[in-house]
Specification:
Pfam families: Polysacc_deac_1. The chain is of the alpha/beta class. The chain has eleven helices and seven strands. The chain has a single domain, classed as Glycoside hydrolase/deacetylase (TIM Barrel, Alpha-Beta Barrel). The radius of gyration is 20 Å and the shape is globular.
């Protein structure tokens, strides 16, 4: 009887570990263009206030240093002064498929020289478009560069097209269409939660556990507006928000594909591919036509007329 109880306790403990549901929040493309619903300073202050309101201690902003004009620099200083990490996302956001190794390497270094001056600079590098090099020369060349300068590859595990929802939102405003912000928030949160759940289940399928995840978001107006709604939904479904640095302590950080990938679905997709899965590496919500249809039907007030 004692052995049965002991076995049951071990099973319960392992089960809770395998379904830990932890994630870190990161924002790409900072400081992203801000000339629509909000200006840059309003966006930054709103995002900082909402992160604080919902008790998120520290997130990471991956910066394209080309955008560090006067306004962009002030915006990044707001994030820096609020205690958030500033990391490298290249200078000009090049597509590695269309850029040779030497030019890509220099773009990375140009960002490094500018971004390392921030107080909360952290040596993490996120590849634009998640493209890490489609040839051995390019992939291994950047791996060597990251190692030389003390960087870690800031992979993501939870992929989505939040940036396209933002594009639809800003386009609707430019065209004078009425946008229901409450409905937009509902769509935004629902789309993200669907993809988060999908990739977590994919991880459990191939790893037998829920790893410490890294959520890809972008520094945008809808992020500032609705991050609190997303956090509430995450916590309501049992997710714990952790720091990015803690997330990258997960053993999957050491996983690397044998062959270079032309298009990268994120770390969980890489692992699934390595396990033999060929379809479903990108969730169906990562589709522009799908998001357009939902936006038209659910968000635009004009669709009711």
């Amino acid at each position: 009887m004692k052995n049965l109880i002991f076995t049951l306790l071990i099973w319960i403990a392992l089960s809770s570990i395998s379904h830990a549901k932890q994630l870190a929040i990161t924002f790409d493309d900072a400081p992203r263009s801000a000339n629509g619903y909000m200006d840059g300073q309003t966006r930054a202050k709103t995002l900082i206030e909402n992160l604080k309101k919902y008790h998120i201690g520290q997130v990471a902003f991956f910066s394209n240093s080309r955008a560090l004009n006067d306004e962009g620099m002030k915006r990044m200083q707001l994030y820096d002064n609020a205690g958030h990490l500033i990391a490298n996302h290249t200078h000009s956001h090049p597509n590695f498929l269309e850029t040779n190794l030497a030019n890509y390497h220099e773009d990375f270094l140009q960002a490094h020289r500018l971004l390392k001056e921030f107080h909360n600079f952290a040596p993490y590098f996120r590849f634009p478009y998640l493209r890490e090099g489609e040839t051995l020369e390019k992939r291994d060349g950047m791996r060597e560069a990251l190692s030389k300068y003390g960087y870690k590859n800031a992979y993501i595990t939870l992929n989505n097209y939040d940036w396209y929802i933002e594009d639809l939102f800003q386009k609707a405003l430019r065209e004078g269409k009425e946008v229901d912000l409450q409905r937009l928030s509902h769509m935004y949160v629902d789309v993200l939660m669907q993809s988060i759940s999908y990739y977590d289940n994919l991880a459990i399928k191939h790893l037998g556990r829920s790893p410490k995840h890294v959520l890809l978001l972008h520094e945008m107006d809808i992020s500032a507006l609705f991050i609190g709604d997303l956090i509430e939904q995450l916590r309501g479904e049992g997710w714990e928000i952790i720091s990015m640095e803690e997330a990258y302590q997960d053993p999957i950080a050491k996983y690397e594909t044998e062959k270079p990938l032309k298009y990268n679905p994120g770390k969980i997709g890489e692992i699934a591919l390595g396990k033999g899965q060929r379809k479903g590496l990108w969730h169906y919500t990562l589709d522009e036509s799908y998001l357009e249809q939902r936006f038209e039907q659910e968000v635009l007030l004009l669709s009711e007329n």
